[in-house]
Design goal:
Blueprint lengths: L4 E4 L5 H8 L3 E4 L5 H7 L5 E4 L6 H6 L5 E4 L9 H6 L3 E3 L6 H16 L2 H9 L19 E5 L3 H10 L5 E5 L5 H7 L2 E2 L2 H7 L2 E4 L13 H6 L5 E4 L8 H9 L5 E4 L19 E3 L8 H19 L11 H4 L1
Parallel strand pairs: 1-2, 1-3, 3-4, 4-5, 6-7, 6-9, 7-8, 9-10, 10-11, 11-12
Helix pairs in contact: 1-12, 5-7
The protein binds NADP nicotinamide-adenine-dinucleotide phosphate.
The site of NADP nicotinamide-adenine-dinucleotide phosphate has 31 residues, from α5 and α7.
Length: 321
Amino acid sequence: MMKPKVLITCMMAPEALKKIKLFAEIKIKSSLSKKQLLKEVKDIDAVILGTDNFDRELINSATRLKIIARFGVGYNNVDIKSSTRKKIFVTYTPNVLSDAVADLTVGFILAFSRKIIQANDHIKTGNWNENAPFPLGSDLKNKTLGIIGLGRIGIKVAERVCAFNMRLIYFSRTRKNRIEEKYGIKFRTFKNLLKESDYISINVPLTKETERMIGKEEFKFMKKTAFLINTARGDVIDQQSLHQALRNKRIAGAGLDVFQQEPIPLNDPILKLQNVILTPHIGSGTVETRLSMSLMAVNDVIRVLEGKRPIHLINKDLVEN
Ligand code: NAP
């Protein structure tokens, strides 16, 4: 009997690849153009999808497709409506990556407060000199962290930062009384969060409502000493306004793991700034987390190929109707 076909467009853990190979014929292809993807999806039964755009045209072309397993938690790159219409399951890998993304967020906060990157450069460029001491950093204690989007990752950030005795505030679509009580985190309006925060962590998904939610006007409310950290999606910030705000020292700095275009083009002016710390979309990038994500995605694909419902379903209407 012919094995079902699975296209994989991201880097998966070898253990998970071994497992899926028992059930399916796999093809691993990353950085495909739309034209190449259109060709590849024609006869596939499942796709394990990285950050490639999977739009209506692709969904309509993939006539045998039963499941789109998003390797990650943000699913702004998948046309959910078209998938549901075509009865294609869309799954994701929530929770297992929240700790890793929160760790990276805390890494940015510490790197800014203690100037870790500059300190490293200071030594390596031969500037360590007792007569010209390295500029002092600042304590985190009593500083304010504002979390925009208090969901799975935002909560993990709050949990970690409690140990630093920072003041915690958040803005989210819904109030979270239990979390407020547990971590002593207080709700603020969006504008007040921007005004009060020394560090801002963006943890909302990219949706029509959150697209460019931080732009020219929002930077005006922020403290000149504020650091903005984005591990969510590049399009939540208007990157051009961010560049202006950083260049004009309207804010003190930005830690960015995600960008409007990825990989960020080498001629992007953001790359020339001194007050940024940039990482190449590595929020979930640890060996342990990627293994958990890989197994989660593969298990859902196998379930669907066996005629069962996947566990981590996004388009729940598909089973409720
Ligand atoms: P989540 O649990 O869904 O949390 C997102 C939070 O944002 C929720 O609390 C949500 O609503 C809130 N929210 C949604 N729309 C909003 C709006 N318009 N205004 C204010 N708050 C809004 O998602 P998560 O697992 O924490 O992940 C968050 C995002 O991180 C993902 O969507 C993904 O894009 C990104 N991510 C990046 C990486 C990376 O590698 N850098 C890795 C994983 C995830 P409520 O307040 O109603 O709960």
